[in-house]
Each structure stands twice: as C-alpha cells, then as structure tokens.
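Q: Here's a chain of 368 amino acids. Please give me its 3D structure as tokens.
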Amino acid sequence: MIMNIKIQNPALLFIGFGIVFISACSSNENKSEAMANNDPAIIVTVAKPFGSQGNSINISGQIEASQTANISTKVMGYITKLNVKVGDHVNKGQLIATINNNDIIAKRAQADAMITEAGEALKSAQKDYDRFTALYKQQSASAKELDNVTLQYNAARSRVESAKQMRNEVNATMAYTTLTAPFSGMVTQKLADAGSMASPGMPIVTIEQSGTYQISAAVPETEINQIKKEEAVTVNIKSINKVFTGKVSQVNPSSQFTGGQYIIKVSIPDKEKNGLYAGMYADLSIASSNKIETAADEVLVPVSSIIKKDQLTGLYTISANNTALLRWVRVGKTYGDKIEVLSGLEKDEQFIASADGKLFNGVPVKIK
C-alpha cells in the first residue's frame, strides 16, 4: 500500500529542519568543549633569553685520560691468548696478549745455524791468516798471498757479524709477539679476541692510565687570545652534579688539524677525580680580564630548548590561547650550554624552557 503525505505548510517544514540543524551544531560544540576540557594541559617552564656573556668565556669540553695507549703488534699472526677484558685493571709490564710466533722461531733457528756455520769458517780463516802471517815474516810467502788470506779472514768475520745481527732482528721481532702493558691503567676497549688475525698497527686493546683525567675543550678563534695557561676554570659536570675549579694546563697554538678550533686542556685537582669517567661532558667557564665584545641586544637561550628538524631550528613559545607554538629561529654561536638566537625571538619574549611532556603545535600548556 502506498501512502500519500500532503504537506499543508512548507514554512513549518523549513523551520523544523532549522531547529534540528541548530541542535546538532550545538551538540557538536558541546562535545568539542568537553573533549578540550578532558585534554590535560602539559606543565611547562618558561624563561626569557639571557643577556650578554660579559667577562666570561663559556665552552663545552669532555673528560679524557691524560695518557692513552693502543696496544698493537708489528707482526702478522693469530692471537693465541688474550688475558684481559674491558674494565680490567692492569699493572705496568703485565702480559696482555700473545701472537703465534712459530715462523719467527724457525727464523731464529736459521739464524743460529748461520752463526755456527760462519763461526767455523772464521776459525779456518783465522788459522790461514796466522800461518801466512808467520810465513810472510819469514819471507816464505808473498805480500799478495798474505793480502788474499787477510781478505778471506775479514770476510769470514763479517759473515759472523751479519748472522749475529740477523738473530738480533729475529729476537726483536719475537718481542712483538708478547704484548705487555706500558703503564698501569684500565682496559677501556677490546678490539679483537683470541683466534683473530692480528695485523701490524691494528689496535688489539686500549688502555687508559688511571687517575690522570683532564678535560679537553675546543675554543673558537675569536676567544682563544683571552685564555692563558694557569687560568682558573669553573667546571660543571651536570651528569653527576659536580662543580669544582680547575686550571688551564695547555693551550694549543694551532688549529690546522682541528677545523679552526683551538684545543685547550684543563687539569683536574686530585681530590675531584673520584667518580669521574672518561667521556663525561663538562661545561667550562673561564673568567677573562678583557671585556668580551658582544652585541648589546644579543639573545641567548639554553641549547636544550632548541628543536631541530632536518635543516631547521626552532623553539616553542606560548600562544594567546595557552597552547604550544613552534617558532622557527636562526641560531649563531654556542657558548657552553647556551646558544645565540640571531632572529625569530625577541630579547624580552618568553619561550618554553622545559616541559613535563612531549610538545607539539596546538597542545594545551600550563605554566608551572
């Protein structure tokens, strides 16, 4: 059965549709507000850019051992024994590894046989020399005969000396098959195992001298003339919350092989070496007697606040709606744990220094 519905008033129909549409929109808006209210805001810490660096030089460095040795051999052969592992303490002269030396032992036996043969030939030449010398004195031998015998005698002596030097060379090569520690220290790397083929110059283990730590840092050319030997350095090792004062012990006058950076070494007091490990990063602050020329409107922010995506750098600011807003900026020189912002951020403008969660554009934030 087909039902025919006749609409008496079309205006009422349009009004009904309008009411339904408005109700649906209002419902959606209410749902959006409810979702927004349920989205927790990320707690953030804000800061303003730092000012000029003033009379201090701030750079980053790394702790290293004052003396490091790569233990290797000058001969090729299989490693027959490796007595250490990473973390082992070794004493000076302690056996580290041995290399197969069967071929060297055979060469030494050959050298010994040559010495014996040359020695017997020398004895015979010695007898001939003594006999012809006596005959020459008795005018029973000519000077030519004596010269020939003397030549043979000297040649025999040379062959004996040559064989002895060959044996010395073999013994020296034999010494490279037994590797010992050149100083007391700690094994920090093991680059081969027993049974591996050792090649000349290939490191097998690395040893760092214990308790001889120093800090190595790179200084740009614009600041190297501000640093002198024996100057005090404030050292901050954030990973272990350790702050102490060291001294500049070495200033490298050349940057030819360091990419335009000048390497300095900072000594560490013995009482501060406890708990330090090679490879730890340190922030260094060196007071300078000369005023460091910096721009009056220089803008510095913590390196940790910088976001890097591909070739772009940026940091997060807070929008008028209290949401995170990624701002692309152009950065300049780095001063320790701070970096210069050349453009994109005003010197009195706030930025997000840290957050308790992952930031992204549009996420609600709340200032701590």
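Q: Can you summarize the key feature?
A: The chain has a mean pLDDT of 84.
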